Amino acid sequence: MHVHKRGVPPGGGGEIELRCPVVRRLSSVDLIDEGKVKRVRGVAFAARVAPHVANRMVETARGVLNDFLPDVWVYTDHSKGDKGGRSPGFGMTVVAESTTGAMLCVELSGGAQVLPEEVGQSAARLLCEEVQSGGYVDSAHQPLALLLMALGPEDVSRLRIGRISQYTIEWLQLMRDFLGVTMHIRPDPESSSLVVTCRGIGFSNVARRAI
Fold first, then answer.
1. Which of 2, 96, 184, 187 has CA 20 to 30 A from 211's CA?
2. Which family does it belong to (predicted)?
3. For the whole model, what pTM was predicted?
């Protein structure tokens, strides 16, 4: 994925290019062992504002995260002119990577009436909350992970998640109504996380390349 333009509210104007291989069938997953967080990576961007805005977000976020682990690195990305979208603004994305490959992500953006320090501090604290909740994916990406499980082969898939979001609850209802897939959710007595299990429908991509 390549980011050509940054876009923030209200005007937007962001542009990305995503290339991925064609996948005919998905595989079942067994993502239960969330591991321990080994490092945090991220990017702080500033579009059509002063470059030091991104640095202020990074310093504040590191002030929170470095209390828990030393391996924290957040890059800065400053966009101006046409590459800065249609509105001025800034934001931050931080990702906690675990020893087993789990990734927990938080994204926040700011604009008028919001200080860069507030965005950096809030992003870092929200990431800590995601880590504390546990799980192999963060709350924002739960629906995508569960959808891929439902579309997988006619085999059992398992996924550990943290706190379940309201959007995920509605998404589970939609998958039950449209795909006929019911997710089985059980709490883990040894932690505050949940284990989600389902049997896929064996969806196959029958699309052919156009000539």
1. 2
2. Belongs to the RNA 3'-terminal cyclase family. Type 2 subfamily.
3. 0.91
